[in-house]
Every structure is written in C-alpha cells, then in structure tokens.
# Entry
Amino acid sequence: MATSDPSQSENTYILGDSSAEMVRLIEQDRHFTRAMGGLLPEQTDLSSIHRVLDVGCGPGGWALELAQAYPHMQVVGIDISARMIDYANAQARASGLDNASFLAKNALDPFDFPEGSFDLVNARFIEGFIPTVAWPAILQEFVRITRPGGIIRLTDCEWGMTNSFAYQKLLGISIHAMQVAGLSHSPDGRNYAITPLLSRFLSEAGCVNIKERAHSMDFSAGTEAHLGSFQDFSIGFQLMQPFQVNTGVTTQQEVEQLHRQLTVEMLDSDFRGIMYFLTAWGEKPQAT
# Structure
C-alpha cells in the first residue's frame, strides 16, 4: 500500500545495501558522470562553492571524485546505509582526502545541519527512495541548509528506451511496483516521470534562477557504455526482484524468466538502448 506519511525511521531504498549493490553503485557513478560530461558540468563558476552536501551518496563515488578534483571544497555525503558510509569514509582516508566526510543519515528525516550550512546541495538519482508525498518537505530542507545565493542541484533520469522486450517489461514492472509503494510520479506506468518535475519542485521550494540541462547515454551494443550498463541493469533488476514480488505486481517466476531473457537480449549485437538524464538547479534567494 502507498503511504501518505512515511515514518522518519523507515528505509525506503528498494535495492538494499548488499555488497553487490555497493559495487553496482560505484560503477554506475563512474559511467553516469562520464555520460553527463563531468561532476558539475553545468556550473561554470565554482569559485564561491566551498561546502557541498551530497544527499543519498551511496558508497560516495560522486562526492569522493568531487573532493579529489576540487581540494578547496569540503564535501559531506549522507546515506541511510551504514555499510555504504563506512566504505566511503574508508576510501576518503585511503585517498588522503581530508576534505571529504560521510555520515549515516536518513534523507527523509529533518537534517541536523544549521541553516545556511552549504554552498551547494546535490541530489542525484534519489527518486528511487523518496516517497512522492515527501518531495516538498525534503526540498524545503535543502533550501534551509543552503546559504542565500547557494545552489540546490537535482539530477534524475528516465531509465532507458530499448529494443529489448525483457528490459521494457522489467522496467514497466519496476515502475508499477514503485507506484504501489508510493514512490512513482508516473500517471500511466510507462516511465518514471520524475524529470519533468524537478524544476517545479525547485520553484515550489522558493528557488530562483532555475535552469535545466539534459544529457543522454547511448548504451547500445558496441558503444563504450554497453557492457557497464549491462552489468548495472542486470544486477539492478535482480536486486529489485524481492521488492517487485512483495508489492504483488509480478511473480518470482515471471521476473526470473524475464531476467534470463534480458541477459540474452542485452548482449545481442542488435541491442539498442538510450538513456536520458536531466539536471535542474536553482538558487536560494538572497536574504532581504
């Protein structure tokens, strides 16, 4: 059943925090960042960005890369998974990154950062664990902890259009399951429908100077992104099976058969697939 009042202590991340999910997220961060042209490709002036918060950081891939690339920035990552946070902190220490730190926190809870703590608040691909009813409140928290004139940056994606029957069927099952769980804005189950809403969320939270930038990633057979995307989706759909089945929208037999079919179709030389990303960002108004 969808919930209209998610518990503050509830973990709504649907893929869990297994070692397999950690490896998947590490690799996904790398090829998604590359496909989008870099860590902050739309931000032409980083001179005023000194403190950054990455919400739902997972094992810290994006945040660690940012801290490495920009030593003048202090980068903080938060994630609900203690396993992911322990890994990210260990990687920061091993790399000598004194400007990166990670905290285990549920993004659905009110943040305990003081008002105006960060110059930039970043949230990439959080649609998978933010209930639809929670978006307004979480955006208000993003604005609260951002300094006046600072940036709130949201990136999400529509998870691909392909010529694979199994991929499209599994994607549809995933979207339907998310609808049942109160995690999808889709009106018809055909796509996630999160990207058209990002700018609206920023506007309703009071942001100004809102802009958007779109990117695409071709993960067809023979492309640079193909094998990495195959591993990403193969593992991701497998880890999602308990969630899909528990929502009642499919059976274990159906998703297992589709997963076997997916591994054949995605590795076929005729496979074609493309994914679309959107980054929307806006500024917290200057204090009057």
